[in-house]
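Tip: read the tokens left to right.
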């Protein structure tokens, strides 16, 4: 598929205490940041708001809890659907993306296909207990296994797949879904896609997170990474 940067919705998740230390550096170094990047935070910031970036105050808690993380992801999802863009890509505020590489990767798929791209942090599917109501009575716990792309490395979802996620992700339903498995936002994304929609994560090792020793990457391959 022929893609342009304007077709990609890049959601950067942050919090007020990192506006100066992380976001300032990101804004200074992230090429073409203002064209397709939306920063989701938990506080207004006039200083950042004038730097040609789209800052979205989610009004979620600044705490690093499951509920607060899922609250922000819920807003990210809704804003992406509103945007009409072809791809949703989520990163944390300590990620740097090589945009030409991202564009090249996404161009090898079509946004109308069911595509979930990312890097798992585990070498096996995660196991969780899903709350299932038993004929309207008390909830039962059912074991489920699924892969998920770690949010710390970044992940991307096609618009076609994102639209199918709507019953469990739109208009606050994401938070309700997360409570069913009591896991964080990136795990909940994997749960919706792999368990509820039966679509598999496409593992790609072009994404990277702070969990890795990036010094082991051959220097000549750095610009090929996402």
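Filled-in amino acids:
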């Amino acid at each position: 598929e022929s893609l342009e940067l304007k077709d990609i919705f890049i959601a950067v998740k942050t919090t007020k205490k990192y506006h100066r230390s992380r976001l300032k550096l990101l804004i200074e170094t992230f090429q073409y940041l203002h064209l397709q990047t939306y920063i989701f935070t938990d506080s207004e910031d006039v200083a950042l708001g004038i730097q040609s970036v789209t800052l979205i105050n989610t009004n979620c808690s600044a705490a690093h809890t499951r509920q607060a993380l899922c609250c922000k992801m819920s807003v990210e999802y809704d804003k992406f659907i509103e945007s009409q863009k072809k791809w949703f890509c989520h990163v944390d505020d300590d990620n740097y993306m090589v945009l030409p590489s991202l564009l090249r990767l996404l161009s090898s798929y079509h946004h109308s296909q069911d595509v979930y791209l990312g890097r798992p942090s585990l070498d096996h599917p995660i196991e969780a207990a899903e709350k299932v109501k038993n004929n309207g009575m008390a909830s039962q716990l059912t074991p489920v296994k699924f892969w998920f792309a770690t949010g710390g490395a970044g992940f991307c979802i096609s618009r076609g797949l994102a639209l199918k996620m709507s019953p469990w992700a739109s208009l606050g339903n994401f938070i309700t879904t997360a409570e069913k498995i009591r896991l964080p936002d990136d795990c909940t994304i994997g749960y919706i896609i792999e368990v509820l929609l039966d679509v598999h994560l496409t593992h790609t090792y072009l994404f990277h997170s702070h969990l890795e020793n990036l010094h082991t990457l051959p220097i000549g391959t750095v610009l090929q990474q996402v």
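DSSP finds nine helices and nine strands in the chain. The domain at 5-224 is CATH 3.90.550.50 (Spore Coat Polysaccharide Biosynthesis Protein SpsA; Chain A).
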